[in-house]
């Protein structure tokens, strides 16, 4: 953290208002930009509040780096060591003492505190810092604290602090006042320097850093440790280079944060440097514009880290780091024209909710609608998580915790890893199972690049002291329990815990694997898994097809036999055969997508064939269906109505239609089996099933398929034209028309593409009257010589509309 005088921080000006709101109204929402000092000044200011008594102040930070840094800085302001008046607590580290009155914790720690003691006895206030990051644990913690304040602790103060979130809806939902502080950021010059099209982006980044590094600190934002190490290699021989990321221990992180004496240096950091921590002496920021975040695949119930573009709010926060000491500079390594999302999506919308369901079940809540949420848990993922937990035996039929559920929830791990620990305890492998769960949940420096989990485990258990944080957690999880020599092999235990990760080598390529969840993976031919027929694939690089295996456990014959015996299911299945363009029905024995044996199914029931067709359309897309122009235009018309009234008309995008195949396509699949059968599905009739009663007639009235023109002909409207609905009609057929018909009661404009007699575009207009006055004279002058046989009257508003030549008109 910086050594700024606290009295000069901008947040100091609003502390009287903030303290009054906490005293009189029980809480507040503090909006304070980066640099205001909210993270470190506000908690200390609350120590003298009369309502605190001897109660502790609980401060939540989204990351371990921030929790340690914020606590360390506040302790220094008091002239004390960490663990005295100010301490911190994370899942892997804790410095809390009997005299501690300000506890800085990571968000998951708050959830544990609440579940163990819902009254939060001994705490006077809870502060949520950097709430704009919108982590799942922060949303859950706020929901539980708000319920505690309403039911058990009216005296518990609540303060939510945010730098970039629009706080109005949050304050309104909580019923709390908003206090706004100014930030302290000097002007920052922002330049863009995207990498060359075919160049190495890390080489480009290193060149930019080398060119910019001068006085003070150059802070470089990169997505992950791998990129940090590669850029550091490229900067060898230049200014001193430090790194900052979540894997460093607390002392190493503190050294990077404190070293700000003005000497030239480069700090290569992940997004941990965006908020709550201040790196000394930063005058220049180089921003890759990338971050690594978890991404959840609901179809396969798998979360993986992916590299993606940051939001505009992230970019602004990163640039602001250059303006803390004086005017600064930020170079963004992407094109100026690139548009970023305004904010990151809340984690609650993009992750598995198993842990949330389990926590709320222990809280006694089976319906999240009864709690306060800025963004409520999505219904689909919530129901899917409940179903998984019921299937695993963690929830009963009513959604309450079972004995197994209580055992899982008592462990500070995600439910699937907690289940591994429980399996290990019950199966005689408590220490090894706990170590495996930790290695799968935490990144251990020095072990991360070892793709064989069995080797990672052996190295960790041989010298656990090399990873002190993990070693402490292992002692908490396993205690004095030791593995029994006669216990089942670990690969059998792992396969029982993660059967969906089972993978078998493909017959046509032993380096490619099919996983039980239906995805594909590949290994390096000379890697540790060469010649292994069966693996348990626990991490990949996330590619949608043939992802590279980053972590796996090779399975022995006994483990494979055990999982096949327990998980193998015999059932009737159908699939689409692309070579024969038809649905094929079989009786198979399989573990998920891995088929162990199959035989043809004679006389399959029609319902099975219909399901096979639906699966084919879902897998191969809507292009399997007969999209003639009539169906395409009908779909476009409904899409326009949905845009005009989204709550009344159904969406017609691919994802929406694929999600509702049973509602509109299934009724038309009876007796169909082949691609030729699908080509005879009456698509418009099928899609009409998605409309409410009376909407088909309303569609024809509001957005008719054809439009009459002055010549008497009904011309088809193209509802898929760029820019909106368009009428392509010969210019002479519109003589006498002053205006185009209104669509959707005037809510949608119709454009006319006026054609020459040869059918080529002559003009485009949405205002015929204006065109006749201003555009037609020039068009007439240009075309009358090229098309002399056709009428070109001086006054088109009174002329006869026609598609005929002058001679044909005369003959008539």
From TrEMBL:
Signal peptide interval: none
Annotated ranges, domain Helicase ATP-binding: 19-183
Keyword set, alphabetical order: ATP-binding, Helicase, Hydrolase, Nucleotide-binding
Superkingdom classification of source: Bacteria
Keyword Translocase recorded: no
Annotated region (Disordered), positions in chain: 786-812
CDD domains reported in the protein's UniProt record: DEXHc_HrpB (cd17990), SF2_C_RHA (cd18791)
Residue span, Helicase C-terminal domain: 204-364
Protein name: ATP-dependent helicase HrpB
């Amino acid at each position: 953290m910086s050594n700024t005088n606290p009295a000069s921080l901008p947040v100091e000006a609003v502390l009287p208002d903030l303290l009054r709101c906490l005293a009189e109204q029980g809480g507040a929402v503090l909006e304070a930009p980066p640099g205001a000092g909210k993270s470190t000044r506000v908690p200390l200011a609350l120590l003298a509040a009369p309502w605190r008594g001897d109660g502790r102040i609980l401060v939540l930070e989204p990351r371990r780096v921030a929790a340690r840094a914020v606590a360390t800085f506040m302790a220094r302001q008091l002239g004390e060591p960490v663990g005295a008046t100010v301490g911190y607590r994370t899942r892997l580290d804790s410095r809390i003492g009997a005299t501690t009155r300000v506890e800085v914790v990571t968000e998951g720690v708050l959830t544990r505190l609440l579940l163990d003691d819902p009254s939060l006895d001994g705490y006077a206030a809870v502060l949520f810092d950097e709430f704009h990051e919108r982590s799942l644990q922060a949303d859950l913690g706020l929901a539980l604290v708000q319920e505690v304040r309403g039911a058990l602790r009216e005296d518990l103060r609540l303060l939510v602090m945010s730098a970039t979130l629009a706080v109005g809806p949050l304050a309104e939902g909580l019923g709390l006042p908003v206090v706004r502080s100014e930030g302290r950021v000097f002007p920052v010059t922002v330049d863009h320097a995207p990498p060359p099209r075919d160049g190495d982006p890390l080489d480009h980044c290193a060149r930019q850093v080398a060119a910019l590094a001068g006085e003070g600190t150059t802070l470089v934002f990169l997505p992950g440790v791998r990129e940090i190490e590669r850029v550091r290699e490229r900067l060898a021989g230049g200014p001193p280079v430090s790194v900052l990321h979540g894997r460093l221990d607390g002392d190493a992180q503190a050294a990077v944060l404190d070293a700000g004496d003005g000497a030239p240096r480069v700090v290569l950091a992940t997004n941990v440097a965006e908020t709550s921590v201040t790196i000394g002496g930063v005058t220049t920021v180089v921003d890759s514009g990338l971050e690594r975040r978890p991404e959840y695949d609901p179809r396969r119930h798998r979360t993986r880290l992916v590299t993606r573009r940051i939001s505009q709010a992230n970019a602004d926060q990163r640039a602001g780091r250059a303006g803390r000491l004086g005017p600064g500079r930020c170079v963004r390594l992407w094109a100026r024209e690139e548009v970023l999302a305004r904010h990151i999506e809340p984690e609650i919308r993009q992750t598995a909710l198993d842990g949330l369901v389990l926590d709320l079940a222990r809280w006694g809540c089976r319906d999240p609608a009864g709690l306060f949420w800025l963004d409520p848990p999505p219904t689909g993922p919530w129901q899917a998580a409940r179903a998984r937990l019921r299937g695993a035996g963690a929830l009963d039929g009513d959604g309450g915790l079972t004995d197994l559920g209580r055992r899982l929830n008592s462990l500070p791990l995600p439910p699937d890893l907690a289940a591994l620990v429980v399996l290990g305890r019950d199966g005689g492998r408590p220490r090894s199972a706990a170590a495996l769960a930790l290695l799968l949940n935490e990144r251990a420096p020095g072990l991360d690049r070892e793709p064989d989990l069995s080797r990672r485990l052996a190295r960790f258990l041989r010298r656990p002291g090399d990873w002190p944080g993990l070693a402490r957690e292992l002692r908490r999880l396993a205690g004095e329990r030791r593995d029994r020599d006669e216990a089942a092999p670990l690969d059998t235990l792992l396969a029982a815990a993660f059967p969906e990760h089972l993978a078998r080598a493909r017959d046509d390529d032993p380096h490619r694997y099919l996983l039980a969840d239906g995805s594909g993976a590949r290994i390096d031919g000379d890697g540790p898994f060469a010649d292994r027929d069966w693996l348990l694939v626990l991490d990949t690089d996330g590619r949608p097809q043939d992802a590279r295996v980053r972590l796996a456990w090779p399975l022995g014959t006994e483990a494979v036999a055990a999982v096949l015996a327990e998980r193998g299911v015999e059932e009737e299945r159908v699939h689409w055969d692309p070579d024969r363009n038809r649905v094929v029905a079989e009786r198979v024995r399989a573990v998920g997508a891995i088929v162990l044996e199959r035989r043809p199914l004679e006389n399959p029931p029609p319902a099975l064939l219909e399901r096979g067709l639906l699966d084919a359309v879902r897998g191969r897309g809507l292009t399997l269906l007969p999209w003639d122009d009539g169906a395409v235009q009908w779909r476009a018309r409904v899409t326009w109505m949905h845009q005009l009234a989204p709550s009344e008309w159904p969406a017609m995008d691919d994802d929406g239609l694929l999600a509702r195949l049973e509602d509109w396509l299934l009724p038309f699949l009876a007796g169909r089996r082949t691609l030729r059968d699908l080509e005879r599905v009456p698509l418009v009739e099928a899609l009409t099933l998605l409309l409410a009663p009376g909407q088909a007639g309303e569609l024809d009235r509001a957005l008719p398929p054809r439009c009459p023109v002055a010549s008497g002909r009904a011309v088809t409207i193209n509802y898929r034209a760029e820019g909106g609905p368009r009428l392509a009609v010969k210019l002479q057929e519109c003589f006498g028309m002053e205006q185009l018909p209104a669509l959707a009661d005037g809510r949608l404009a119709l454009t006319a593409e006026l054609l020459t007699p040869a059918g080529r575009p002559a003009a485009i207009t949405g205002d015929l009257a204006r065109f006749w006055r201003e555009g037609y004279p020039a068009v007439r002058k240009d075309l009358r010589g090229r098309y002399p046989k056709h009428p070109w009257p001086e006054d088109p508003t009174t002329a006869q509309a026609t598609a005929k030549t002058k001679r044909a008109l005369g003959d008539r």
